[in-house]
Amino acid sequence: MPAISPNTPGVAAYSISGSKAFVVNSILDFNNIPRAFTVSYPDPAPAGLSIELRRVSAPAASIDLDAMTDGVVDNTTISGRDVSVNRFTGGGTTQLTCNIQDPSEAGILNEHYELRVRATNPINWSFSVDNAFNSTVVRLVCDPVATFNGLTPNLLEQQLLTLTADDAVGPLAAPTVVRATSGDLVLPAPSPTYEFGHTGLIAIIGLPSDPLPSQTYQLVDASLAPAPLPGVYGPTPVPMTVDVVHGGITPDAPDFLSARGTFNTTLEARPQRAVLVLDRSGSMSAEHRWDNAKTAARIFVNLFGEFRNNVDPQDAIGITVFEDSACVFRDPRPPVNGTVDPLITAVEGLDKPEQVAANIGSTIFGNPGGCTPIGDGLAFGLQILQNGGLPADARYTVVLLTDGDENAGTVKIGPGADPANPMTWAQRIAPSALPAIPDINPIATHPDLNLFTIGLGSAPNNTVLNSLVAKGHFAAAVTVGELIDRFTTMLKISQEINKLTARYTQDPNPVQPPSPQNEVFFTTTSADKFGVAVLRDITVSPVTPTTVEIARWNGSSFVVEPIPVQTFEGHHYIGVPNASAFGAGSQTWRVRRLNAGVPEPLAVTPTSSDVIAFEDLHVKSALTLDQKDYRTGDDMNLAVRIRHDFARLPGATVRAVLDAPDGGLGGMLADLDADDIDRNKRKIRSPKDRSRGRAALIEALLAKHDWHHLPRCNPGDSGGLFVDGTDILHDVDGDGTYTNTFARVNADGVYNWTLFVEGVDTSGNVFSQRLDQSTLATIGVSSHTSIIRKETLKDAPPGMKAVKVTVTPLDKFKNRLGPGFDDTVIWAVRDGGVFAHVKEHQPPPVNTDGTYTRTVVFRSGSFPTLKVSVNGVTLPKIYVRQKGHDDRDDR
After folding, report:
1. 762 phi and psi, to 5 degrees?
2. How far is it, in rounded angstroms, from Cα 498 to Cα 795?
3. I want to staple 558 with a disulfide (CB 3.0 to 4.6 A). Which of 81, 100, 481, 551 is the partner?
4. Do 31 and 46 meet the contact criterion of CB atoms below 8 Å apart?
C-alpha cells in the first residue's frame, strides 16, 4: 500500500513505499552554490522510469532528468538555471542527484520547482534534499491508497451491493499526502476520485461506475435506482476493482498519481422459488386468452427449468389459478362465513421444475368460468411459497396474470371501500391475530420477493396492478398475441437472461421483410446455454400436428442439429444446456416449424413473435425508464446500458418501437351514453364475471365500436419517436449508455416499449437482443384548463341556498380525466356549507360523463368555499357564494 514517511513537510529526507509515482513541490533558495536533491530507486532501473523537473515559477520550463548524461550542464531548457545530474549505483540501488544553480550569482529566493517521478509498477523510492532550510518541501504526494473496506469474499446473486474504498490519503501515520498548511506557499490537497468496477466474466449493471468523489458507491442503474447483482448459475469469480486518482496534482496528466485495488470475490447462486398466479375467471374464455395463458405458463416452466438445471436442489416452481363462484366481496372476519373460495387452488404445487414440466398436460389447468378475486388469488400464491418453506438466502418470484378488474373475494386490493367490508391488501399481508386467516408474512414483505403483474386486454385495472410492484415489474398485453411475449419478459427479468431478437433475415442489420415468413433467425453470443420456444397455432381445432427444426450456420450453410424437441399443447420447446459445445463466439440459428415436412409461416412483429429465444449472460443490455409511471405532459427519458462482462460497450445500435394509446381514454368513456352502457350489460359474455366501475365502461366502449382492444398507435410512424426526430437511442458520452427522450405523452394508458439492440462485443462477436418494458400514464390534471361550473338550484330546503358545483378535470392537452375516478377526486367544503348528500344521508353522486359534482347547501348570509383535489392536484379555491352577492340573484 502506498505510503510516505515521515508524515510532516519541510524535512530533509522521505521514503515513498509501494508507489509507482510521486510528485514533490519545493521552494528553493540558491545562488552560485547549487541546491541538490536526490531520488533513489532500485538497480537495475525499473521499467518506465521517468524523472521530470519542472520550474513552476515564471518563466515555466521542464527537463527530463533521467535522459541527461552525468555531469552535463543544461542551462537552456530550465530558463537560465544550470542543471546537472550524477548517478551513483551500488547495493541494488541507484541514487540520482540533481544540482540546480544560478550562474548569474545574483541570488534566488522562493523559486518554486516540481519533481515528477514515475515507473510502470509500484516500487520503493526515497527522496532527500541537501538542506531543508534552503530546499523546503511544501507538498509531497504519491499514489493513492486503493483498497476495499468491508467487502466479503462471497456475494449473493441479486443482492444490493454497496462498495466502500479506504481513504485515498491513507492513515495518518503513513499517508499518501504530506503538505504544508501555512507559509509562503500553500498548495491544495488532492481531490481523490474513486471508480469501481470488476474484471469478472459476467455483465454487472452499475459497474463500472463513473469516477466519484465519494469512497462509497451503491450499484445503480441508468436512472440512479439501486441495481442488484446479476443472477448466476454457479459460483462465478468476480474480482472487484477500485481505481483511485489523486486528482488536481498534475492537471495536464490527470492519472499521473493513480492506483488500482483488487479484491477477489465470488458471486454465488441462490435457491429460487417461483409461483405463477393465473386468472381463470369467466372472461378468460374469450379470444383464446386461457389457452394462451396456459401456453405462457408452460413456456415459463420450461425456461425456468432449463436455466436452473442443476443449479440448486432447493429450486422449485408452482402454478395456482384463481376464480370465485360468486361475484361479490365478502367480509372474511368471524362470525361472517367469508372463507376463500375453493376454486382458488394450486394446479401444480411447489415442486422441482422438471417434475412440474412433466405434469402440465392439457387437462390440469381446468376451464375458466368464475369471477375475479385478485386479492385472494395473489395471497394464495404467496402462501404457497410460504408453506413450501423459506430456504436460507432464497429468491422468490411471483407472476400474477389477470384480464379483469377485481369483483369478488375476501380481499380488495384496489382503492375505495366496499359495503361488504372485505380486507384491504395491507391488512391481508400484515401480521394478524385472526386464527381463521393464516398469516402470509414474512414472504409478503420478504426483501428477496420479486412480484410481477401482467394485465391482459383493455379492462384490467392496470393502475392497481402497477401499484403492487416495483418499477419495470408491470407489463400489459393489450392483445392476446402479446401475452406470451409479456409473460416471458418477466422470466427475462427474474432470471437475468437475454431475450434474443427473432428476425426473418440471417443478417441482423437489413430491414425485416414483410410478415409472415416461414423461417426465423436469431444469434447467440458466447452462450453457455439457451432455450427456444416455438408457438403452435391454437386457434384451429384440433391443433395441427407440427414439429420444429433448428439449424446452425457453419460458415457456408445451415446444418440441422439433432437437438431434442419437446411438444406441448401450445408450443414446442428446444433446450440446449451445453451451447458452448457448438463453439465460442457468435452462432446464428435458423428455426422452422414443419407440418408434414413443409415449413409453416411464422409471425414476428415488434410486440410478439412465434419464436421466443433466451440465452445466458455475457453481453447484457438493460433498459431503464426514469420513472415508474407518468402523467400526461411528462417526458419519458429512456436509457439502455450495455456491458460485455466487465467492459462498457459503445458502438451498438439501439432502436425503439412504441405501442401507445391512440387518443384519450377518459374522453372516449365520457362520450358513452346510458344506452351504450345498458346494451353492454345485456350482452356480457359471462354474467358471473361482470365488471364494475371503469372496467365496465371500457367494456361498453369496446362493444359500442366492436373493438377487440382500445385504439393503439406507434407515435414513431409520424416522423421519429424522440425529440431529435429519430427512433434511436444515442451513446452521447461513448460509455455504453444509450439515451433519448420521448416528449409526446399526450394520452393516458399503457405505453409498451420494445427496443432492439444490435452490435459487436469486445471480442468481435455479433449480438442481437430485445428489451421490453411497460409503463402507465395517467391524466396530469391541470388547474388551468380544468373546467369549474356553478349552478344555483331552485329546490333548496326552506331557509337554505343550494349551489351545484361541477368539475370537469382536464390535462394541459384538454384530455378529460373521464369517469371512474371518484376515489381520487377529493372534495372539502368550508365556511358554513355542507354537502347535500351528507345532509340527506345518501351516497355521493357518481357521473359517467367525465364530470364530478357536489351540491353545497348553506344558510343565507354564509359564504362557503370548496377545495377540490384531483389525482393530487389542487384546483383553485371555489367560492360557492361570494360576499356582496345579492340573495335575490339566487332566484
Report:
1. -70, -15
2. 67
3. 551
4. no
Residue 101's CATH number: 2.60.120.1290
Are residues 351 and 468 located together in one domain of the fold?
A: yes
pLDDT value of residue 313: 94
Model confidence at 799: pLDDT above 90: no
* Rounded Cα distance, 68 and 424, in Å: 83
Of 109, 142, 175, which residue is a domain's last? 142
DSSP conformation letters of 452-504: EEEEESS-S-HHHHHHTS-TT-EEEESSGGGHHHHHHHHHHHHHT-EEBPPBS
Please report which confidence band the pLDDT of residue 412 belongs to, taking 50, 70 and 90 as the band edges: very high
**Does 225 share its domain with 362?**
no
Does any domain span residue 380? yes
Alpha-carbon distance 412 to 788, whole Å? 33
Which CATH number characterizes residue 334's domain? Answer: 3.40.50.410
Across 257-261, 605-609, 718-722, the highest mean pLDDT is recorded for 257-261
CATH of the domain at 857: 2.60.40.10
Do 278 and 261 reside in the same domain of the chain?
no
Residue 491 pLDDT level (bands cut at 50, 70, 90): confident
Residue 446 lies in a domain: yes
Phi and psi dihedrals of 303, rounded to 5? -70, -40
Structural domain total, the chain? 5
Same domain, yes or no, for 242 and 308?
no
Q: Are residues 608 and 513 in the same domain?
A: yes
**Residue 639 lies inside a defined structural domain of this protein:** no
Query: Is residue 222 within 8 Å of residue 735, measured between CB atoms?
Result: no
Claim to verify: residue 509 and residue 591 sit in the same structural domain: yes
Beta-carbon count within 10 A of 197 CB: 21
Reduced to 3 states (helix: H, G, I; strand: E, B; else coil), residue 669 is helix
What is the pLDDT, as a whole number, of residue 872? 87
Least reliable range by pLDDT among 56-70, 426-440, 670-684, 742-756: 426-440
Cβ neighbours of residue 532 closer than 8 Å, sequence gap 6 or more = 522, 550, 573, 574, 575, 576, 589, 591, 611, 612, 613, 614
What tens digit of pLDDT does each residue of 270-321 get?
Answer: 999 999 999 999 989 888 899 999 999 999 999 999 898 889 999 999 999 9
- CATH assignment of the domain containing 546: 2.60.120
Three-state SS at 67: helix
Strand partners of residue 729: 654
C-alpha distances out from residue 870 to 770, 778, 813, Å: 38, 12, 16
pLDDT class of 661 with cuts at 50, 70, 90:
very high
Co-location of 222 and 118 in the same domain: no
Average pLDDT for the chain: 91
The domain boundary, picked from 223, 246, 268, lies at 268
CA distance 55 to 59: 8
pLDDT band at 683 (very low <50, low <70, confident <90, very high): low
Give the dihedral of Cα atoms 71, 72, 73, 74; nearest 10 deg: -140
Three cell numbers at 350?
411447489
Is the separation of the CB atoms in 616 and 497 below 8 Å?
yes
Is 387 exposed, middle or buried (CB count within 10 Å of its CB: 0-12, 13-18, 19+)?
middle
Which residues, in sequence order, are CB contacts of 461 under 8 Å at separation 6+? 405, 406, 414, 455, 694, 695
Same domain, 304 and 414: yes
> Which domain range does residue 578 map to?
501-615
Q: Is the pTM value of this prediction over 0.85?
A: yes
Radius of gyration of the chain (CA): 36
